[in-house]
Amino acid sequence: MPASSFRFDNTYARDLPGFYAPWQPASVPSPSLLFLNRDLALELGLAADELDGPEGAAIFAGNQVPEGAEPLAQAYAGHQFGGFSPQLGDGRALLLGEVTDRLGRRRDLMLKGSGRTPFSRGGDGKAAVGPMLREVLIGEAMHALGIPTTRALAVAGTGELVARERPLPGAVLTRVAASHLRVGTFEFFSARRDTDRVRQLAEYAIARHDPDLAGTPGRYLALFQRVAQRQAALVAQWMNVGFIHGVMNTDNVAISGETIDYGPCAFLEAYDPDAVFSSIDQGGRYAYSNQPPVTRWNLARLAEALLPLIAEQDTEAAVSTAVGQATEVIDAFPQWYAAALLAGQREKLGLRSGDDEADRALAADWLTLLQEHRVDFTLGWRRLADAAGGDEGPLRALFPDPQAPGAWLARWRSRAENEGGTALGWTVRAAGMRRVSPVVIARNHRVEEALSAASDHGDLAPFRRLLSALQRPYDETPDQAGYTEPARAEVTACYRTFCGT
Predict the structure, then answer these.
(1) Exactly one of 90, 108, 210, 251 is catalytic; which is it?
(2) Which among 79, 249, 386, 489 is least surrounded, fewest beta carbons within 10 Å?
(3) Catalytic residue status for 391
């Protein structure tokens, strides 16, 4: 394969010595290509046809390092379930390098499951087929929903078994990200009181993600504010599709504002703000409704790491001022999040601008209605679009008592008609609502069926069919019908996800 296919330009390796350990992926006995994201390959300027074969399998399994790559394991720390781990790092991942895509965006290419590194902490550095294909499914689902996310370029089978609760077929994921800079990356050097390296990292982050801030006064505070605003927008999008990340540790908070690390993640079915699916989240720290306040808490940890830079001088007055400035950003997060959440809810309600408090109450009462009657979150929103189009039947059929939503629907229609609800207006309104309320999500039982078939039987057909459906989340067509229905309540009640390590 031509070396020019990847066109690496590795700023992380070049500009941040001491922030990583150079390393090589482990060789595997029998690489095979299980998945190639041809659209993403083309977006990255790669030769998809050349990658879709044995040479691509060798590269994506780690057996062949492409020319220009500089594999490295990144160092980072992290607050995990509230407790600080001063050294984590890439224990089973390697950043191959960076490429510039067709739109001029710099993108990381990272192998996940490529063997032990200096940060493995006793782990085997490997990954199994199921969790790596999960990253494909959830990442592509999020991408199709318009939510910032890392994406899978490829998954390669390794031809070996990895030891988990039982032996499982091994795999390596190639993940694409705007960067892999995390809150935990800053924490790593802050914990060591290495302010010079925190500053070096902040300057790199600014150059990478906020270049307009480069060299400006107050840029470190501005960087913190940008990160906070990106996280506010991101988590609001999660909440508006019913996504539960499951493990919102600070090492899983990307400075870029992308969703990263699809381990014990899941989507709501019957609406429940307290829903937790992760097997490792015993206390519900990362429950669905806790995601906004946990994000704020994580941002406070970033503020602590950046504080010496924001203060500029190591004096009591300068530090006090910096604390106040950072606190203002942290305290502004709930308002930024609330504004982003309401903007998304208005679109799903078919509304435009109006009285914010009244519209928040309208949306909150809708969610309370869904919760009280155990209505599926995704279908509730989608069938509301049908109601906007003139057919309330499918929506009412979701409720044990079809009369239950009547009073709220009357209130919603009255609110919408204040914006001009002619017959044509309602038709247009319904179409707009369908564009933002999916009918297909990564239903947990469908994901498990696809992963079980691939892992236990080597059958990728269910995975491919589900992936195709997830890439068209707003299309309500006969071929999508099997992917729109929730699991039985008793199945969802005992559903648990695992981190895949």
Answers:
(1) 251
(2) 489
(3) no
